[in-house]
Amino acid sequence: MSQLLVVIQSFDITLVIALALLLDRLLGEPNKFHPLIGFGNVAAWFEKKLNRYSDGKHTIFYGALAWLTIVVPLPVAIYWAGHFIVEYGIENSQHVLIFQLLSLLFDSVLLYLIIGLTSLKQHAMQIYRPLSDGDMSLARHFTGYLVSRDTSTLSAQQMSRATVESMLENGHDAVIASLFYYAIGGIELALIHRLANTLDAMWGYKNKRFNDFGCFTARMDDVLGFVSGKVTVCCYAIQGRLFRSVRNAFVQGNQYKSHNGGWAMAAGATVLNIKLGGSAIYHGKTHHSVQLGEGDNVTQQDIVGSITLVQRASLILLLVVSTTQLLLTF
Questions:
Q1: What is the pTM of this model?
Q2: For residue 70, how many other CB atoms are within 10 A of its CB?
Q3: How far apart are CA 112 and CA 89, in angstroms?
Q4: Contact 169, 261 (CB under 8 A)
Q5: Are the CB atoms for 204 and 217 separated by under 8 Å?
Q6: Which residues contact 103 (CB under 8 A, 6 or more apart)?
Q7: Fewer beta carbons below 10 Å: N end or C end of the chain?
Q8: In what order do the strands lie in the sheet with 296-297?
Q9: What would the pLDDT profile of 191-243 be if each residue is shown by its tens digit?
Q10: d(CA 283, CA 147)
Q11: What is the pLDDT of residues 9-46, one digit of tens each?
Q12: What is the distance between the alpha carbons of residues 127 and 159, in angstroms, rounded to a whole number?
């Protein structure tokens, strides 16, 4: 029993990440109710009450207040609950193993709900299959689930590009960042990043409605994703064309509208030997972005390649974490 406890304590982070990835693979996205959807509903209510659109500094303040009110309480509550449980477990040493197993299971389930690897694959394949069948209307419909750009007139190549871009960027936002921040800061830090990133997807737009209200949200997402974005680049780049991938991430990613997203997409596209970026229509306006990656134009087959790249990146990070914990035991 004591040996099992030592193993669990020595490889707790590895076990949680492995179990979370396994649960994600087996169960996929919850069908009836996803906590992030509930969080989004709460965020929408706060935004409706506090967003004054064109009220300048006051709106920026209300946006920051909304972010702090929505994002901070849950991780803090989990931290203190965990602290009291650990203290109780120490005082009742005969139950330490049970508390350790319960803690591991709790973190694994919560981390599973935070990450979205299988969900990303499912959304991407919803586009890949109709593209393969030549059903452009259905492919455009499902592309609209992934991206905020106008999809009504997109070609097969443009939809493939949009899907690959979403896979590579969300490979960071919804997978690698959550796993990395769990590894270095526990479930609380992983949750803070995921909630902040979800808010950025809702409020981080540069338009009349969100330019002021979403300002703090966008900045916090940039800050929280800065380190994990570089980790994602490494997890992508190690899979091929290492130096070119890192170079393009630095040169091209720094010119992209989203620093963290640009780094991830530039590195991933270079590994896949494709070019991303270009023109796209958002909210009726045409936006141009720099080229990300290098090589051939995107095809629908690259959708499958991007899925594989993100899946392998998660396993590479798991391997790094397990190796680190193994070295720390000696």
A1: 0.89
A2: 20
A3: 25
A4: yes
A5: yes
A6: 82, 85, 86
A7: C
A8: 285-293, 274-282, 296-297
A9: 999 999 999 988 888 778 888 888 899 999 999 999 999 999 999 999 988 99
A10: 12
A11: 778 899 999 999 999 999 988 877 778 888 888 988 98
A12: 8
The DSSP result for 69-102, as a single string, is HHHSHHHHHHHHHHHHHHHHHHHTGGGHHHHHHH
Query: Which residues are 282's β-sheet partners?
Result: 285
Q: CB of 152 within 8 A of CB of 140?
A: yes
Task: Report helix angle 156-171 to 136-146, nearest 10.
Answer: 30
**At 292, is the secondary structure helix, strand, or coil?**
strand
Nearest-5° angle of CA 230, CA 231, CA 237? 85
Facing residues of 293 across strands?
A: 275
CA atoms of 120 and 179, how far apart (whole Å): 15
Contacts of 75 (CB under 8 A, 6+ apart): 187, 188, 189, 191, 192, 195
Distances (CA, A) of 98 to 7, 22, 80, 88, 102: 14, 22, 19, 12, 6
- Predicted confidence (pLDDT) per residue in 112-144, tens digit: 999 989 999 999 999 999 999 999 999 999 998
Q: How far apart are alpha carbons 77 and 91 in whole angstroms?
A: 21
Please list, in sequence order, all residues whose beta carbon lies within 8 angstroms of the beta carbon of residue 240, skipping any fewer than 6 positions away: 271
